[in-house]
Amino acid sequence: MIGVSWPAAAIGSWRWRSPMFARVQVAPSTLLAILVAVASYHLATRISALGLWPDGTAELAGRAALSAAGKADPTALLASYPPLPYILLMFGELLGRPLGLDPVALIDALLFGGLAARYGRSLTNRGTPTKTVLVLILLLALHPLSIAAVAQGPQTLLLVWGCWVLGRGMMDTRTITGINDTIALTLALPMLAMTGAQGAVIAVGTIPFLILGVPRDLAERHYVGTYVVLLFPLLFSVLCLFALSAILLHTPLAVVIWDAYHVVHTDASQSWVIAALAPVVTAGVAVIAVRVSMTPAVPHALRESAVATLAGLMLASILVGASGIVGNPGEILIPTLGFVAAVSTRWPAAKMRQAGGWILAGALVAALVLLGTGAELDSPIARIMAGRSGAMSADRALGRYLAGRQDVMIDALAHPAVVAARGSADGLLTSRAPAFGVSVIAHRVFAPAVAVREHRPGESDDAISRSLPHLFEQGLPGYRLAFDQGGWRVWARTERSELP
Predict the structure, then answer these.
(1) Cα(320)–Cα(198) distance, rounded to whole angstroms?
(2) What is the rounded CA–CA span in Å between residue 430 and residue 97?
(3) What is the pLDDT of residue 130?
(4) pLDDT score, position 427
(5) Disulfide: which of 46, 158, 246, 272 matches 195 by Cβ 3.0-4.6 Å?
(6) CA-to-CA dists, residue 195 to 63, 110, 159, 160, 241, angstroms
């Protein structure tokens, strides 16, 4: 059995005291969580500088930047899907921009640092020795899935948070039966559903196993009523989102169009291969936590809750892989990190020395699984360490070209990734600018420069391409071609020199 030892026992009782705040005490686990948040912010800023954010993260960041700059209607964006990461990124824009901080990296740091702090607090409340808590926080922070979650962006970290809340709710409601634990269990489902398509599938996959997360006598006497209580927040939040979409976007199903499009355009054969591998890699990591929870010192009810949560995640992983929402098994595996962390907080304090060794072994298993399944989650990290940028996508190339340039007309709401790569929406003439509206109505360009994308089969054109269908190929009299790359062209007035 692998154990965790700590020679510097004095660190376990250390507290920070300031002469100005004599009563303020910061626990070592909290201080370590702050350091984890700072490291996460540094990693995320490097990802942003090298252009390694996934397309979904870049689009969410661009939408938030447009709303914060007043270039898009925030109420309409709130009705789009997914709302939860968009709201957090809006908060990052409003808080981070005035302070000179990267909004996406700021939210990344707050989410991951908060998870580390909450994890350490839960272990401390269980009576775990401080030195063991510090080691487990470090193992959580250095876990390959944790680094991959930070590299994927706030949406993936919210998935980890959702699985953490779900795991804690499943186990604590069964063993403690407190009102706060029941609330956590019921709120975990809408939290997952509002995070994105993968979170929604995880929420649906765990529904058949929710009954195992409540006390047995309650489940036997009030089976239907228990499910009504557990599912009411999820159903209510989904209906509210549909109603908001019907009011603001004039169709209740507009919230699912974007994700449905990407699912339809995924290779079906690859999806079924992922669906077959997903439960295997999920069990390969999560079984580490369940194995320790099967020790005689763990109550029988806790064992059932842990197995039920694992079964729900395995079913959800099959559904996610079959639907084609996620491109490789490694990405499906990331949310299970929250479940493993939640289960580890419920181990008896006397077993935590063994638990640290099991988590360390789980980290090694996860790394081997990622390599064995061909997942490329380590590629962004390798590029960051080497200082190399990722492949230059068309939207990112245009955004980098437009950085610092003013008065460029573009349908930014249809291409938010361009705004994210540009770094700001200031200076763009978007759909809310008078020049944009007049140009679309009059079928003429009144802006100093205009960015237009070529027509792509199977995709709808943006407002500029619909109004001026020949603009991409033929341009306009008095305008010259200033940029041509990756299906994007920028036409600028010849008498102006702002866009060399």
Answers:
(1) 6
(2) 20
(3) 86
(4) 86
(5) 158
(6) 15, 16, 7, 10, 13
What pLDDT was estimated at residue 313?
A: 75
Q: Is the peptide bond before 103 cis (omega within 30 degrees of 0)?
A: no
Do residues 271 and 102 lie in contact, with contact meaning Cβ atoms separated by under 8 Å? no
Within a 13 Å sphere around the CA of 350, how many CA atoms are in the beta-carbon half? Answer: 4
Residues of the chain short of pLDDT 50, as ranges, are: 1-22, 24, 258-274, 281, 284-295, 371-379, 382-391, 496-500
In single-letter form, the type of residue at position 51 comes to G
Residue 335 is predicted with a pLDDT of 85
The pLDDT value recorded for residue 439 is 87
475: region left, alpha or beta (phi > 0 left; psi from -120 to 50 alpha)? left
pLDDT at 263: 42
8-43 b/e (C-beta count within 10 Å ≥ 16 → b): eeeeeeeeeeeeeeeeeeebbbbbbbeebbebbbeb
For position 106, what pLDDT does the model report? 95
pLDDT of residue 299: 59
Is the distance from CB of 472 to CB of 489 less than 8 angstroms? yes
* Single-letter code of the amino acid located at 258: W
Torsion over CA: 316, 321, 322, 323 (sign)? positive
Distance from the Cα of residue 22 to its chain's centroid: 39
Query: For residues 131 and 12, is the Cβ–Cβ distance under 8 A?
Result: yes
- Count how many residues are written for the chain: 500
Burial of residue 404, with CB atoms counted within 10 A of its CB: 0-12 exposed, 13-18 middle, 19 or more buried: exposed
Q: Which two structure tokens, joined as six digits, stand for 165?
A: 């809340």
Q: pLDDT value at position 354?
A: 56
Report the 3 state secondary structure along the chain: CCCCCCCCHHHHHCCECCCCCCCCCECHHHHHHHHHHHHHHHHHHHHHHHCCCCHHHHHHHHHHHHHHCCCCCHHHHHCCCCHHHHHHHHHHHHHHHHHCCCHHHHHHHHHHHHHHHHHHHHHHHCCCCHHHHHHHHHHHHHCHHHHHHHHHCHHHHHHHHHHHHHHHHHHHHHHCCCHHHHHHHHHHHHHHHCCCHHHHHHHHHHHHHHHHHCCHHHHHHCHHHHHHHHHHHHHHHHHHHHHHHHHHCCCHHHHHHHHHHHHHCCCHHHHHHHHHHHHHHHHHHHHHHHHHHCCCCCCHHHHHHHHHHHHHHHHHHHHHHHHCCCCCHHHHHCCHHHHHHHHHCCCCHHHHHHHHHHHHHHHHHHHHHHHHCCCCCHHHHHHHHHCCCCCCCHHHHHHHHHCCCCCEECCCCCCHHHHHHHCCCCCEECCCCHHHHHHHHHCCCCCCEEEEECCCCCCCCCHHHHHCCCHHHHCCCCEEEEEEECCEEEEEECCCCCCC
- The answer to whether the CB of 56 falls within 8 A of the CB of 327 is no
